[in-house]
Backbone:
């Protein structure tokens, strides 16, 4: 196929974004949504056309290269797009979910007042992510990287008139800028060491040179790791992700399923050879991912906002991917990236359907029983919970991907800085924490299937900020009209209800009788390692199934739920406990960054204000003195003026005459 077709994959949604940004305010709503959806559909169609072109597995990659894009005497970075097996899989992921979420947004954002800006940002988000995954050099990756960061800021802050939303968008933007500084330093370090920023050239010649200069290679790996941690929300740069829920729900689904947070995983997967010669970097990845894994799962257990529960779930699942990368199991990490995309998109979009039906209520305590009136959403939510908890082999989108990660961790070793962390210990921690995913997901599902229909009892629905929410006609919502209203939302949920279990089936490992089709595609045809057999996984499956049923029964019944919560309140650590304070990360940032910056700003203001005030005062005094001196020369006597003129003429003649 023509290399120009590769360029069209990111170009079409990019052009659509420009058109909608310029003319979106003049177009009718259905046309705006139609143009945005067709643009991503076109990219999806072109991407699908490459699946039969022999790119998958060990097939021949397709390159679009116009030559140097940035060129100096010592540095070159080309406009080079590289479509191989893994980038084709990522393009399929981005365009498939980008298309579904754009169509979903047509129903979800129907009554929004700024549709043109929203869909333009959505298309630009997809175009930026496609540029990132297709780029063959780190500079072009950085261009897509920055585009994704910009669009996340625009979309998280879409409801900019609401309280706290601009701050949430700024926080995401600021944390990612910290990561970008590390990313740029990493690019400079890579060029300094290897003399190129091309991924293809680095993969060919980088490993040998990195082995010789292991110290410099480790420094470059750590710099790039800082960028990946910020973009993929790993501790300590994870603090923006929960706040990002301030944006519209389709944005949350796109960020968590197919763009933004997967960018860091993809970058590290592409540079796996670099981390293979940097055990210290892998140890740091392992430790930070373990912290994020535990933090995300525990925080998800205590949240009451439906979207924040899913956001902290994403933190935990991203940590699983990083743990796989730390163990050197790139294939397992990428497999879970794809599995997570399916069940997390399903969960977020089902949550969006609940929010729309319940008039933008997001507190699960006020959404009890709502799924009983939303049959399609109910199936979607249950499907997503089963996939996220990895409960049923071949049907759960996350079962085989999690097993691949666990299998890799069991045989890994993490060493660096004179310390050693055995893989079996990490494996045991992950198994224990993954049990929590069963609890928080079925706690959520139990609330939504509760026997009490709380929305009917509420006179006024409130949003996550505590403000009264009206329906689109300006009337207060009532539970009597809670129903699935949008055909676009229902169509997307219906597709994902089928697609998520289908992915689970296709991702089955050979040890379970599967063919490993998806594994082969995302690893350029690498053989899949022997995974966990059914007889080994069966005890954990049974335990998790029992926990899921018990958790659902406990939270779906009012009496049992209140009795359980009454006992748990006795374990509360108060307003200053680690759960209420988000494990003190915000306090740490406040103490280390915010307070010193405020102090420096205050001190600078005092110093500069005094300097400028003093200078202006002195200038005033000088002007006043000069004015008084000149005033004395104005006497009004003609003979004094004549003497002055003659003296001036004499001095001028003396000067011009050469003294």
Residues:
């Amino acid at each position: 196929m023509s290399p120009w077709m590769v360029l069209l994959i990111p170009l079409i949604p990019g052009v659509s974004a420009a058109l909608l940004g310029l003319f979106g305010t003049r177009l009718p709503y259905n046309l705006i949504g139609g143009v945005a959806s067709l643009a991503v559909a076109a990219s999806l169609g072109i991407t699908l056309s490459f699946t039969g072109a022999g790119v998958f597995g060990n097939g021949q990659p397709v390159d679009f290269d116009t030559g140097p894009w940035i060129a100096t005497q010592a540095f070159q970075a080309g406009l080079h797009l590289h479509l191989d097996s893994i980038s084709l899989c990522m393009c399929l992921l981005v365009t498939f979910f980008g298309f579904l979420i754009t169509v979903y947004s047509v129903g979800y954002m129907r009554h929004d007042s700024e549709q043109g800006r929203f869909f333009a940002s959505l298309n630009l988000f997809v175009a930026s992510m496609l540029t990132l995954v297709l780029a063959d050099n780190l500079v072009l990756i950085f261009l897509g990287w920055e585009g994704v960061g910009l669009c996340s800021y625009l979309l998280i802050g879409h409801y900019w008139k609401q309280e706290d939303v601009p701050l949430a968008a700024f926080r995401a933007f600021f944390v990612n800028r910290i990561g970008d500084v590390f990313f740029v330093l990493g690019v400079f370090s890579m060029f300094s060491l290897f003399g190129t920023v091309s991924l293809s050239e680095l993969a060919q010649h980088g490993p040998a040179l990195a082995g010789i200069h292991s110290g410099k290679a480790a420094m470059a790996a750590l710099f790039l790791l800082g960028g990946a941690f910020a973009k993929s929300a790993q501790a300590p740069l994870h603090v923006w992700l929960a706040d990002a829920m301030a944006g519209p729900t389709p944005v949350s689904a796109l960020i968590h399923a197919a763009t933004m947070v997967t960018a860091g995983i993809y970058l590290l997967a592409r540079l796996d050879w670099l981390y293979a010669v940097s055990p210290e970097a892998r140890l740091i990845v392992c430790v930070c991912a373990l912290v994020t894994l535990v933090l995300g799962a525990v925080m998800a257990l205590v949240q009451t906002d439906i979207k924040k529960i899913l956001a902290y779930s994403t933190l935990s699942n991203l940590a699983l991917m990083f743990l796989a990368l730390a163990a050197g199991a790139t294939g397992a990490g990428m497999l879970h990236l794809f599995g997570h995309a399916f069940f997390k998109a399903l969960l977020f979009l089902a949550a969006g359907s609940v929010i729309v039906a319940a008039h933008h209520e997001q507190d699960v305590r006020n959404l009890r029983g709502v799924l009983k009136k939303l049959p399609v959403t109910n199936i979607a939510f249950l499907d997503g919970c089963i996939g996220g908890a990895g409960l049923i082999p071949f049907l759960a989108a996350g079962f085989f991907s999690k097993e691949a990660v666990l299998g890799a961790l069991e045989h890994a070793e993490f060493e660096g800085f004179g310390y050693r962390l055995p893989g079996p210990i990490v494996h045991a921690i992950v198994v224990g924490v993954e049990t929590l995913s069963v609890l928080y997901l079925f706690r959520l599902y139990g609330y939504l299937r509760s026997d009490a229909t709380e929305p009917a009892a509420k006179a006024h629905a409130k949003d996550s900020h505590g403000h009264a929410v009206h329906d689109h006609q300006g009337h207060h919502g009532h539970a009597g009209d809670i129903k699935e209203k949008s055909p676009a939302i229902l169509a997307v949920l219906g597709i994902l209800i089928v697609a998520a279990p289908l992915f689970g089936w296709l991702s089955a490992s050979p040890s379970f009788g599967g063919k490993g089709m998806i594994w082969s595609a995302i690893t350029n045809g690498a053989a899949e390692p022997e995974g966990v057999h059914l007889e080994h996984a069966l005890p954990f499956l049974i335990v998790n199934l029992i926990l899921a049923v018990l958790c659902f029964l406990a939270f779906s019944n009012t009496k049992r739920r209140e009795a359980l919560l009454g006992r748990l309140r006795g374990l509360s650590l108060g307003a200053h406990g680690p759960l209420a304070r988000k494990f003190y990360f915000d306090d740490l940032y406040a103490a280390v960054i915010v307070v010193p910056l405020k102090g420096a700003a205050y001190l600078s203001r005092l110093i500069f204000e005094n300097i400028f005030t003093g200078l202006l005062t002195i200038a005033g005094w000088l002007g006043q003195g000069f004015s008084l001196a000149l005033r004395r020369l104005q006497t009004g006597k003609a003979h004094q003026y004549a003497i002055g003129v003659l003296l001036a003429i004499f001095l001028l003649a003396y000067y011009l005459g050469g003294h």
Summary: Confidence is low (pLDDT under 50) at residues 454-479. The chain has 24 helices and six strands. The first strand starts at residue 62 and ends at 71.
